Amino acid sequence: MTAKERFESAKEIYASCGVDVETAIVKCMEAPVALHCWQGDDVTGFDHDGPLTGGIQTTGDYPGRAKTPEQLMQDMDMALRLMPGKKKLNLHASYAIFEPGEFVDRDKIEPKHFAKWVEFARERNMGIDFNPTFFSHDKVKDGLTLSSPDEETRKFWIEHGKACVRISRYFAEETGIPCVMNIWTGDGYKDIPADRMGPRMRYKEAIEEILSEPFDRDKVKPCVESKVFGIGVEAYTVGSAEVTLSFAATHEGCLPLMDNGHYHPTEVVSDKIPALLCFYPEIALHITRPIRWDSDHVVLFDDETREIAKEIVRNDAIDRVLLALDYFDASINRISAWVTGMRNMQKALLYALLSPNKKLKELQDAGKFTELMMRQEEMKTYPLGDVWNYFCEQNGAPVQEDWFAQIEKYEEEVLSKRK
To answer: Which of 7, 111, 266, 269, CA to CA, is 20 to 30 A from 152?
Structure first.
């Protein structure tokens, strides 16, 4: 059978259980996923030469890391060619691009320092999401930024946040696509603190001051992201899940952002998605793969990735859940890591769209749990691969593992020659 014949056969199989494959493909094509720039250079950025700090860590020394904006954009271009579906670009503030001899600190960055990123995104019909960078900087004092008791330190980071609001506004205006601006800090303590509430009040008031910077809520979507712990902040994090969820719930226009590596090992974000959708008009996600801790492994087509996608789709929330990837693996080819993670996230969305969700809900409400289990299990072996290959072809992306040969060629011709 040809690929087209396999696809037509798959359409008939899915139609037998009430799934319209063509509709599923169209919906999947319209679901944007933001590609994170920091996988390409191990979260190094372009505004500092120091180590990675803030409770996060990149491991590995695979050759070919991007060291300049031009190299990073070149690598992203290579990755984008191998991914089907709709994408956005996700930047950290530490990726500001300065002209030769120019430098300003993070509290003074301006839209002009990201003009080349806007040009890159516009040429590829992509929007841009943004993240203030509250780590890897000498003004992180005693592991604290927005929650620091030192007023000068706190003021510096507040001004950085305000600058990022202005830059996010610029991104939205220049691309015509709303910018998700995510606030996450690694603030916390290595051991048991004497005061848990004080830092959180300072954190709350600092973010309120950041969001006092004027912006159009239809264009800039500020988020607050939680974390359960980090390296060096094992005992206490200021921005816990309770703090960030409460902040978003009590501040109009601010959204919660959940990273599925930022919770206790037995918690799953897939279960939290429908809970939050009951109360928030939109929510944001950073998709990663934690192993024992928030280790930011490459996203796989695994149980939790599929469950996250299913909860988004079955609750008709593709337009309400703002998706971005977030991982950094320096132990393998970085471009392959990008492509693998993005293709798996898009594959999970397609998998969820190819499920007879209405029928399954009816079985649950009718108490037909035996049939519900049977149908959910049988759907796992339906011919997703044949539909996925067609989806890739329709998007001009390689099918199955054909894309990897291009990665190997790029490594030989480009990455291996980098010093």
So the answer is: 111
